[in-house]
Amino acid sequence: MTRMKTLFQVGLLGLTCLLFPMAVSAQTTESTAAPAAADAPSDSAAPQTEAGLSQARNLAQSNLSGPLGEYYETWQRTANRAERVLDAKRASNGALESLRLELTEYRQQFLDAGSQNADRIKTLRAQIEALGPAPEEGSSEPDNIATLRDELQSQLANLTAPQVLADLGYSRAQGLISEIDKLIRDRATRKLLERAPMPLNPENWPSAATDTANVLAAFWNETAGLLANATTRESIRSRLPLLLLLSAAALLLLGRGRHWAKRAGAYLRELGGKGTGVWRFIVSLLQVLLPYIGTVLLVRAIDLSGILGVRGTLLLDDVPLWSFLLFASHWLGERLYVYQITNELIPFEPRSQGQVRVLLASLAFVLVLQLMLDRLDVIENFDDGTFAVLSWPLILLASLLLLRLNRIRAKQRRQDPDPAGDDDEGAIAAGASRAMSVLRRLVFVLAVVAPVVGAFGYINAAIAIIYPVILTLALVTTLMVVQRFLSDIYGWLTRDGQGAEDSLFAVMTGFVLALVSLPFLALIWGARTSDLTELWSRFLEGFNIGDTKISPTIFLTFVVVFAAGYVLTRLLQGSLRSSLLPKTKIDPGGQNAIVSGVGYIGIFLAALIAVSTAGLDLSSLAIVAGALSVGIGFGLQTIVSNFVSGIILLIERPVSKGDWIEVGGLMGYVRDISVRSTRIETFDRTDVIVPNSDLISGTVTNYTRGNTVGRVIVPVGVAYGTDPRKIEEILMDVAKSHPMVLMNPAPAVVFQGFGADSLDFEIRAILRDVNWVLSVKSDMNYEIAKRFDEAGIEIPFAQRDIWIRNPEALKDEAASADTAPEDAVTPQEDARAAQSAPPKPDLTDLSPDDGAEGEADR
Length: 858
Fold this sequence. Notes:
The protein is α+β, with helices and mostly antiparallel strands.
């Protein structure tokens, strides 16, 4: 039974998907006819006064083939008509927009024609330059060269004539488009600053109430009249099956659409990705889409029934848009709750989530009411006073809702003056938070200003302030939700889960979404679509830097070619590093130098080829090179020195990757050599960045240059009286028994001499790998201590013996102290006096015994 129910739901959903396109295609749309001025005859075209331009035009019309020659006369008539319309200034904005679109098409044709025959023209100019300069007046040149020069110049004139006309047409079209834009902007400014009757004036209320009642009565009378019409009833009976089917599908989608979306989510989660939130987001979209489709089907059913008149039909056309706004506001509230998104602009925290969701839904409802009022104004053409009286309460309600939203955030800030985690945010997150804080204050100011401005009669200005604020709030919220959804997808694909929310991908996604939202913000705040298309067309045209033109096409060509060269360079480096060079006899340092050199040369060639392919003029780089040389002379000396030193290191290779070196008191292994610096890993596992100039100009000790063979020296001291030959035998045996010691050359034991405390010996041995010198020295010391202990050989330590020459003097002083009178100086007082008096000659003789370090034990 459950399976049958599921199949029925799937079948009904499929039937709905089939009926939805049928309903949309059959839906009638409102079309507005824009009045057009009469075309002027071709004879009325403005004549060209300059002989050169007339000649160029004649050449173009006689020789051109393609769009420019075919449409030039039509363009002249269109341009003249546009000038007359602009001079009259009576055309509506719709007519001006239609005329502007036509002019924009012509301008694009002229722009495309301006590059016609560019390669052929370049070839002809190169041929003329190859002939040399034309002879001066009074001089002559060979007939064959003169004939060839005239023929080439004639061909060049014929080919450049279309470009002349294209430039003239482009300039004229550009000027006309600018005039139309200026006229439309001036009209919008005047309308924005128009002052209507004050909505708070009670004298305007009766007329507003009367107009509202008349509109409602007109709607009712139209509907009642159509229902009483026999033709309407007959039409309903003939379309009854389709109407019932559409209505049933609409009601099911409206009533059960959200439930079906959840059931679909259960099937989707079986595909994987549980816990990432991806399918939950898809289900939330279905919960909006399915009821919206149901609304469209219901609107179509009402429209096909014919029970609404002209007013009702025009109003019904916007019902899907209004329902979508309401569904979207509900969806945003749910997404904010699910994602727990909260910031300075949207205070959506657990303790305030209910209030915020109600406020967002209320703002959407107020926006829909204003859109409904605007539509009624277009249909009924309300009086200015009536429109102001009906609009101002909605403006006030929207302002109060925004202020309430702001107050919730202010209350939260008082309760949590220093939210946890703010100190740990990065610079980007902190900057975004500050931007949101500024935006919140701006919303507060605009919410206060809008109703005040509207109360004084500037109702259009108030509408232009308050409702864009609501739409901006909705757009920012939508961007946050979409960013979180994209982060969930990234976390699902990378198996990073919720950690993707703090990844670089999330930051870059937010940046891209912010850029994408800029055109929508411009449209919300009053920009026209034609303004955005104009900006885009100018962006595509590019801009000139000297004789070089920079355009998106050129930039994209440069990026693609350079990226391809960069990728090929890296692939070649990888092949050399992993496949080719390991099979040669080149040492690792040489291999690293070759790979690095190939990388630098490849990137340089990639940049050079990309610049040439994009068509950039390299001669203009001479100015940059001159400025760069001045900068090098003043501030970049160190950088250039390190760069040149890096090149020398890679070519001469006095230091290679993996070498054990000592430079500037630092000792460690070379881990990486770049063009600016070298990275050295010390023995305590810390990285030290050393400028390359220090390695070239300073003293560098390379312990492993060429090979890893090196010498170890182990000093040993024994007590006086020990047989030196026995010590030599033991030490030689210790040295030869260590596996890291080479026998050729053989190790040696050196009797260094007679020290202050010991007989000094040294083991000197050559190791297979000097990198193990400390380990070898430690092993030898352990073995020496063991062998000396077994042989009873003493290793001395520092000590001192004190010999008193005349001990009887101390006895006489002690006896005299016992018989001293009462007023005599006590030994304590004598000691204090001795401390302050100059020192007397020392009566003791300090004899060295077993080492200078015994001074510390005296």
